[in-house]
Design brief:
By secondary structure, this protein is mainly beta. The protein folds into 3 domains: 131 residues, OB fold (Dihydrolipoamide Acetyltransferase, E2P) (Beta Barrel), CATH 2.40.50.180; 148 residues, Beta Barrel (OB fold (Dihydrolipoamide Acetyltransferase, E2P)), CATH 2.40.50.180; 137 residues, OB fold (Dihydrolipoamide Acetyltransferase, E2P). The protein has 8 helices and 33 strands. A 6-stranded mixed beta sheet has the order 8-1-2-11-10-9. Strands 19-12-13-22-21-20 form a 6-stranded mixed beta sheet. It has a 6-stranded mixed beta sheet with strand order 30-23-24-33-32-31. The C terminus is likely disordered.
């Protein structure tokens, strides 16, 4: 597999071979099929053909995708000599696969044939051949009582050896596991964390993640472990009984499947409310977190955000807004520039462009970001700076004149709050550089850009098809 398409299902990331991908569409109009397996959502018309539409989540977990979500996408794939549609919750992107980053499983009985590391995540590689071939149209036939009893007995045997997926992470060289369905997201350590007064040392503070205010707990301190800060530290965004909480850990290890026969529960004498069992796999031991303790822990941490004596979220937000301006600092030809954080929707790593014929010289091409095609602009070309190579860099995704646009930069230095008394406004309201930021006593000068002054609306409209 030279290229992989990565998509998301219930907080987990999966990948398939991109060689089979024809295009990415929004949710198709479905025609239901009577007596079809639950994994088949129905039929749709595409490329002049009537093709089956499969629910990727049901193929893997028996749960159903909410097709009303705006992020849901249909992957049109070539399966053998026929087309099929695979519906996924969100498309992450198409990447080049390094062979040393992939680990395959010799024997797979659930369609997951391997794992690979991508940025901060462990991605599960799935076999469409295995999953699709396992689905067949329901056949109505007479079943006698003996056959039915045998089937029930077989189903009960399968329940006895239930297998679940766990996210394994590291705290002070010890492996811990948490049920994967409770993990919503994995993020890097946030530098924009608001502290909570009168809270325990293990409660680090609050972060804002897509309009959710989430309390962060240092799980290492909670387990009496050494809390060493490094670039491998990660925050697990966990959903427990209707609430979100972030758990800081040393690093992410892997996603593993653990059979209940591999779990050894503690005796009453040695039981710890924080953990439910020890998983034994070959020579590895993994401590499994207790779901009941996670529920209680989430409630306790959430309580600190609701106690007015400890914290007033409104007052802190107003104080930061009045005295600081939050900006993204990036580099162009080793010079520092900035944009308002409110102008940046997200920051993605450069993975390559698709050329756009007859485009402006500063439009580098387009990228497919989770099924959405976005033009990418070179700020260096637009500003008349030296031409650059595209070996590495970042793309700032912004909204310009109602359309999403990417800005290619060499690197993103930081996301920081700048004191307003160090920012000077430009008198020319139409200047590309609206403000000048003076730091370190004026020795460090950063030009802040006004996105609305960069381009005309007609120059950014690029008509392309949503294909990969």
């Amino acid at each position: 597999m030279e290229q992989a398409l990565i998509f998301k299902l219930q907080g987990c990331e999966y990948a398939i071979n991109s060689d089979t991908l024809i295009k990415i569409d929004r949710t198709p109009e479905l025609t239901p099929v009577s007596y079809a397996p639950k994994s088949i959502l129905g039929l749709c018309s595409t490329e002049g053909q009537i093709i089956p539409v499969y629910d990727a989540l049901h193929l893997l977990t028996q749960n159903r995708i909410d097709i009303s979500s705006s992020e849901v996408r249909s992957l049109i794939l070539l399966f053998g000599d026929k087309l099929i549609s695979l519906v996924v919750e969100a498309v992450i992107g198409n990447i080049e696969v390094q062979s040393d980053a992939v680990e395959y499983i010799d024997n797979s009985d659930d369609g997951v044939i391997g794992f690979m590391k991508y940025e901060d995540s462990v991605v599960q590689i799935i076999s469409l051949d295995f999953l699709i071939n396992a689905v067949s149209m329901t056949k109505l036939q007479k079943v006698d009582k003996k056959q039915r009893i045998g089937k029930i007995s077989q189903e009960n045997d399968q329940k006895i050896t239930n297998t679940k997926q766990y996210l394994v992470f590291i705290m002070e060289d010890e492996k811990f596991g948490i049920f994967i369905d409770t993990v919503r997201e994995i993020i890097v350590d946030s530098k924009q964390m608001i502290s909570i007064a009168n809270s325990p040392q293990e409660v680090l503070g609050l972060i804002t993640l897509r309009e959710d205010v989430i309390p962060i707990l240092d799980l290492r301190l909670h387990f009496k472990k050494q809390a060493d800060k490094s670039d491998k530290n990660r925050i697990l965004i966990v959903h427990s009984h209707g609430a979100l909480v972030g758990l800081m850990v040393d690093s992410i290890e892997d996603i593993v499947e653990i059979c209940d026969t591999q779990l050894e529960e503690f005796s009453v004498k040695y039981r710890d409310e924080k953990v439910s069992a020890i998983a034994k796999q070959d020579k590895d031991l993994t401590t499994i977190l207790s779901s009941n303790h996670l529920k209680n822990l989430t409630s306790q941490v959430q309580a600190y955000t609701q106690n007015e004596e400890n914290f007033d979220l409104v007052d802190v937000g107003q104080r930061d807004y009045e005295n600081y301006d939050e900006v993204v600092i990036f580099k162009l030809e080793e010079e520092e520039f900035a944009m308002d954080i409110d102008d940046i929707l997200e920051i993605v790593r450069y993975e390559g462009f698709t050329d756009i014929p007859v485009a402006k010289e500063y439009i580098l091409g387009m990228i497919n970001l989770r099924g959405e095609v976005i033009p990418v602009v070179s700020l260096m070309t637009k500003l008349g700076l030296k031409e650059h190579s595209f070996e590495e860099g970042n793309i700032l995704i912004s909204m310009v004149n109602g359309s999403k646009t990417g800005f290619f930069v060499e690197s993103v230095s930081d996301i920081v709050n700048i004191p307003l008394n160090t920012i000077k406004e430009n008198n020319d309201k139409e200047n590309i550089f609206s403000h000048t930021i003076l730091l370190e006593g004026g020795a460090r000068m950063i030009l802040k850009m006004a996105i609305e002054n960069l381009f005309l609306e007609k120059e950014l409209k690029v008509e392309v098809e949503e294909t990969v």
